[in-house]
Amino acid sequence: MMSDNATHDLTPDCLTRLAGAVGIVIDPERLPAVLAVLNELFELEREVEEIAAALPGVADIGTGGQS
Amino acid sequence: VTEPYRLTIAAAGRALRSGQLTAEDLVRCVLARAEETEDSVRAWVELYPEEAIAAAQAADRALRDGDDSGPLHGIPIGVKDIVDIAGRPTRCGSDVRHDVPPASADAAVVTRLRDAGAIILGKTVTHEFAGGVLSPPARNPWDPARIPGGSSGGSAAAVAAGSCLGAVGTDTAGSIRVPAALTGTVGLKPTTGLVDTAGVFPLSWSLDTVGPIARTAEDATLLLAAMTPGARHPDPASLAGARIAVPVPYFLDRLQPGVRDAFALALDVMRGAGAQITETEWPEARAAMAAGFLIVRPEMALVHARTLREFPERFGPVLRSRLEAFSLFPARGYLRAQTARAAVRDRLLRRFDDEEFDLLALPTVVAPATLAEATMVQLPDGDEPIHAGFTKLTMPFNTVGLPAVSVPCGLDASGLPVGLQLVARPNRDRDLLVMAAAFEDVSGWAGRLPG
């Protein structure tokens, strides 16, 4: 459904269904705003991943120990 | 004769004990000051004049009988409207909570302040659910066309306007330090966990802190001592021999000229007072900022999950969309941030030890107060959204849990206050305030009121 750290594969229908699964109703007109905020969060996650991945205690997380 | 509203807490305490001032006169004076300034500053959600005057009269009687509660005896204090006051609704600056019942008990910090003799004057304006830096409808006493900062904007504006002598704020990403910097006041984000957050409406339980806003570091020390159990009063200190490091990169990369110049002058002042100024590299600072927001946002979504499911129409469209997005963000990002948080904290603390510095020094905010209608802050190499821009220098220290204080360090060319941020090791809050007071002594910027 979703590629790693990106929302571009997350279709409006997919987002609506995902929201429904947690009891949230997203009006169609607000979908772009929700996607924009989600993209901001994924961007923040990328920043954490890039900088913190080299730190002791973090390096192996996400790699299954294959780093 | 100094008008009582202009007194610091320490000076008012001396005046009360010498008989030059009564608590009732002091409370009546700040209430009159509120009446004078509220049309333009709008710092208060509500004031409790009758209760405050009755409490002041009781404080005067107690003092006459030799019953002195300590440095806050008879001192009028404001409380941010996400902090419970018994018998009063905690509306958190939101229409979502317009019909919330009154709180059944005081928040722990309010109980401690009352026990220390403080008089609770009223509730101050917060940005909605403490989630922003604008704090409408409050305005900046230095220029009412501008924001006071936030989210504890009402608390800082009230202290700066003279409608109280000190205030309670909360800080999850910078919400005490940002408004302190923008209003020329002193604001301390204590070590995470030092001040009890019971009875404070949560923004993010991992990062929320409660702390003081005052006109001087000495006053902030008096408030912090009342807020925390087992407080000790550290001896005064000077900056001579203090080892102060300026963290690079990131923190100095994008500053408005007025902030850059005031910060450079602050370093010169500290150097002139005998401090050793060095640079230290904290390459993970940006990750610390990002991790902080990745923690706050999903936690905020969970705080509001039930309301979002059952009464979503109560939220405005912008906040509702944000909470929906926060709710759908995968747990992976939150967990990655929590893990990174421990690692970046460890790296920073190791630098304190390895490079043997006592404090970090950096600007509090990249720019002075913006106009109220602005959505972007103008920086030398491009505009940035105000919330992201105004919290980028403060959030990293919420993530790592260190104490950080903002003290005034000058005015920009437009006459707007600029803040210097000093950061210490965990649980060195009082020593941090002592060094902030030492900076005030040599800089001469503390305690100035607008106009």
Keywords:
heterodimer; A: 67 residues; mainly alpha; disordered N terminus; B: 451 residues; alpha/beta; two-stranded antiparallel sheet; 15 helices; 16% strand
- Poorly predicted segments of chain A: 1-5
Residue-averaged pLDDT of chain B, rounded? 96
Measured as a percent range, the helix fraction of chain B is 40-55%
Query: How do the SSEs of chain A run, as a string of H and E?
Result: HH
The quaternary structure here is heterodimer
Q: What is the count of helical runs of chain B?
A: 15
General form of chain A:
elongated
Largest sheet of chain A: none
How many DSSP H or I helices of chain A?
A: 2
Q: Distance N terminus to C terminus of chain B?
A: 17 Å
Beta-strand content bin of chain B: 15-25%
For the secondary structure, the number of strands of chain B is 13
Low-confidence stretches of chain B: none
**Strands ordered across the widest β-sheet of chain B:** 1-3-2-4-6-5-12-13-9-7-8
Give the amount of beta strand of chain A, in percent: under 5%
Largest sheet of chain B: 11 strands, mixed
* Helix-residue proportion of chain A: 40-55%
- How would you classify the helix and strand content of chain A by structural class? mainly alpha
List the helices and strands and how they pair.
The complex is a heterodimer of chains A (67) and B (451).
Chain A: H1 12-21, H2 31-52
Chain B: H1 9-18, H2 23-41, E1 44-47, H3 49-64, E2 76-80, H4 108-115, E3 119-124, H5 153-161, E4 166-171, H6 177-183, E5 186-189, E6 209-214, H7 217-227, E7 243-248, H8 257-272, E8 276-281, H9 285-303, H10 305-310, H11 317-328, H12 331-354, E9 359-363, E10 376-379, E11 382-385, H13 386-391, H14 395-400, E12 404-411, E13 417-423, H15 429-443
Parallel strand pairs in B: 2-3, 2-4, 7-8, 7-9
Antiparallel strand pairs in B: 1-3, 4-6, 5-6, 5-12, 9-13, 10-11, 12-13
Helix pairs in contact in B: 2-3, 7-15, 9-11, 9-12
